[in-house]
Amino acid sequence: MLPAVSVSTGAVVAVLTGGVVLTALLAAVAVSAVSVAIAAVVLRSLLRDYHRR
Questions:
Q1: Would you call 27 helix, strand, or coil by DSSP?
Q2: What is 14-25 written as a DSSP string?
Q3: For residues 18-47, b (16+ Cβ closer than 10 Å) or e, as one string?
Q4: What is the rounded CA–CA span in Å between residue 36 and residue 29?
Q5: Which of the pair, 28 or 6, is modelled with greater confidence?
Q6: Would you give the DSSP letter of residue 11?
Q7: Cα(7)–Cα(17) distance, rounded to whole angstroms?
Q8: Is pLDDT above 70 for 4?
Q9: Is residue 5 predicted with pLDDT exceeding 70?
């Protein structure tokens, strides 16, 4: 019984670790996408003001 319990525990740990890694990657991608969008908006407004002058 102990080997089966240890295997299931290892599987649970592996699944949890994979979920945490995937969640962290998705969060990093979302943060980078938001920062790129903000930078694009700022650059667009700066270029717009530059062309108005």
A1: helix
A2: HHHHHHHHHHHH
A3: eeeeeeeeeeeeeeeeeeeeeeeeeeeeee
A4: 10
A5: 28
A6: H
A7: 15
A8: no
A9: no
Cα separation, 5 vs 13, in Å, equals 12
Total-model pTM: 0.59
Please give the single-letter amino acid code of residue 48.
R
Structure tokens at 9: 């525990």
Tens of pLDDT, residues 8-52: 888 889 999 999 999 999 999 999 999 999 999 999 999 988 877
Report how far residue 19's alpha carbon sits from residue 23's, in angstroms, rounded to the nearest whole number.
Answer: 6
**What is the identity of the amino acid at 15?**
V
Two structure tokens written together for 52: 């108005």
